[in-house]
Design brief:
- The protein has five helices and no strands.
- With 101 residues, it is an all-alpha fold.
- Helix 1 packs across helix 2, helix 1 packs across helix 5 and helix 3 crosses helix 5.
- The protein starts with a helix and ends with a helix.
Length: 101
């Protein structure tokens, strides 16, 4: 899937997953999106909806049957290991994917 679709689909779920580790930053994100005091994941999802971009993994052809493979592959990335809210195993990635399903 193109990166801009990946960001549109995954960012609200990534924000929700990372909220415990990034609460202050997420308040700034919500404010920047014109939704001060709202959940940053919800604010970003509303922004994506306004743009008419896909909002769920199914909208871009990614089914739950791919989640385990994606989770295993994601563990190979340095970016996964640098996530603010720790991602320790493929199941953690699958949790995020299920939020975006």
């Amino acid at each position: 899937m193109p990166h801009y679709f990946c960001t549109a689909v995954m960012m609200p779920s990534v924000l929700r997953y990372n909220r415990p580790a990034t609460e202050a930053a997420q308040q700034s994100i919500a404010a920047a999106l014109g939704a001060p005091g709202r959940d940053a994941g919800e604010a970003f999802a509303a922004f994506i909806a306004e743009l008419g971009l896909p909002r769920r993994l199914a909208d871009v052809g990614v089914g739950e049957d791919r989640f385990e493979l994606i989770g295993r592959n994601a563990m190979l990335s340095i970016f996964t290991r640098a996530n603010p809210q720790p991602i320790r195993e493929p199941a953690d990635v699958v949790k995020i994917l299920k939020l975006a399903a």
